[in-house]
Amino acid sequence: MVGNAASRFRNQAIRQGHRYDPSAASRPILVFDNVYKSYRPDQPVLRGMSLTVERGEFVFVTGPSGSGKSTLLRLIHRTERVDDGRLLFLGRDVARLPESAIPALRRNVGVVFQDFRLVPGWSVYDNVAIALEVIGLPQRLIRTRVGEALERVGLAGRGGDAARVLSGGEQQRVAIARAIVHEPALILADEPTGNLDPQLAIDILGMFEDIHETGTTVLFATHDRSLLDVRPRRVVILDEGKATDVPSGLGEDDADLAGDDPYADFETDGDLAVA
Amino acid sequence: MTSGGLGPRTFGTWRAGRSDWRLQVLTVFSLSVAFVCLAASLLVVTNVEALRDRWSRAGRATVYLKDATKEADVTALSQALQQTAGVARVRHVTSDEARREVVATDEALSALPARAFPASIEVAFDDSVTDEQLKTIALKLRALPAVDSVETYERWTERLSSVLGGGVTAAACLFVIVLAAVISVVASTMRLLLQRRKIEVEVLRLVGATDHFVRRPFVMEGATQGAMGAALALAMLGIMFLLVRQRFDHHLANMLGVMPSFLPWPIALGMIALGGMLGAATAFFSLRRLTTV
Fold first, then answer.
1. What is the pTM of this model?
2. Architecture of the domain made up of A26-108+188-275
3. CB A134 to CB B2 under 8 A?
4. What was the ipTM of the complex prediction?
5. Residues of B in contact with A139 (CB under 8 A)
6. Which of A 115-144 lie inside 8 A of B, CB atoms?
7. Could you tell me where the DSSP H helices lie in A67-214?
8. Which of A17, A102, A165, A264 pairs with A3 at a CA distance of 20 to 30 A?
């Protein structure tokens, strides 16, 4: 009798799919396994791309225009769908998530775009708070967390300003605050410095590095070579639908090789490891 | 958690009114212009219908008396009619009076013999008397020995009623056409409004809002704007109606025999509800395109 009750309690407490798995923390946060994606049958963007990103990594994703940098990020965010292969985020295959699970996926990912994607008519506070409102946090907590996020991006006290009156750099800071306010496991940055001048671009990169310092995984897509040289970081180069991994970042030699197509000769470098 | 009922979160995400109030006002005004047309056509239907109801019965009858009818019988009949329920007025018209009235309008008829102008009793009924009651009264009157015949003007009122019935049908058709146009205008206005605010939908999707969470504020906004547009239209039409009625009320009432009336409360409230429903439905369906990202 007591045994039956204990068994029933155990079955209720440990529901299928919600079982605590200690090994999950040591698994990679992101795995692309032989991923294919094309918008037109004759022009595949990703052709059997494989890539693994560990928790807490900062990874630059680079490559020429049209190489699939944005596509790669959109696949993770499920704005696009994988044609073939597996894309695991926190151990779950994003490509096979049901529609109803996509909002939950997106709440675990922060996204920053080149064009900021802010609502111009909303205030700075509203633009950031929306990421917490969708989760359903109480307003009191939202106020506190938005205040903290704005402080982290250097916009403390600017919550009441309309987004449309901010400069490009400030708008990008608001977008970053929105991406981090709900403390996601992964931040996707799609050319976040593309619309900014070089100094501001480095400031924004510094901001992502600060976010990374807190343990957040960052995928930073850029075609700006100068940003890759700021600090040696892991670089993933996308070209011809494949990913080429440069674990310790691009060195001086690579900079010399950079001509019209800075990635043309990467495959001759000894550091490169094809993922 | 995010799909609960209406709460502070719904209004928190409904920032449109604060952020772009000019657009909101413009939208409500555009909708109200469409709804004015709808309300006006409804006003025509209502008043033509009232006119048809008024003219579907003559509201009077002429009781022709036999030549040999004695004065005492006429008095008794008049008194009996005056005491009948629904009878508003009774007037005895002698043969001479009838001749005078007719000849006054047409001199050529003066040569007609005296029996062409029989004495009669003119009976006016109030609005409570139905056609059936009028028929019953006429039947009873015809059975009296002093009565030669009873004219209830049934054929004339039937003809007028069918003409006005056609008018009601035409007005109802007009209403349906205007309603279709209003649905189209409301849908287009909502689609344009949502296209302009597409970025809000994109941002909501970006941060992981469920479809329900995305739609809720927009559908509420659509419902509010639709209802406000309809209410504003009724207010504008009401003011115009009052201005017109103040100037032409007396003449119109005399000419038509019926007082022009504004839309009854249930219809006015129904139109506001229709505005709300149309706004909500069009916002919902317009959003379906935007939310399938």
1. 0.69
2. 3-Layer(aba) Sandwich (3.40)
3. yes
4. 0.80
5. 8, 12
6. 117-122, 126-127, 129-131, 133-136, 139
7. 69-77, 102-107, 124-133, 139-152, 168-180, 198-213
8. A17
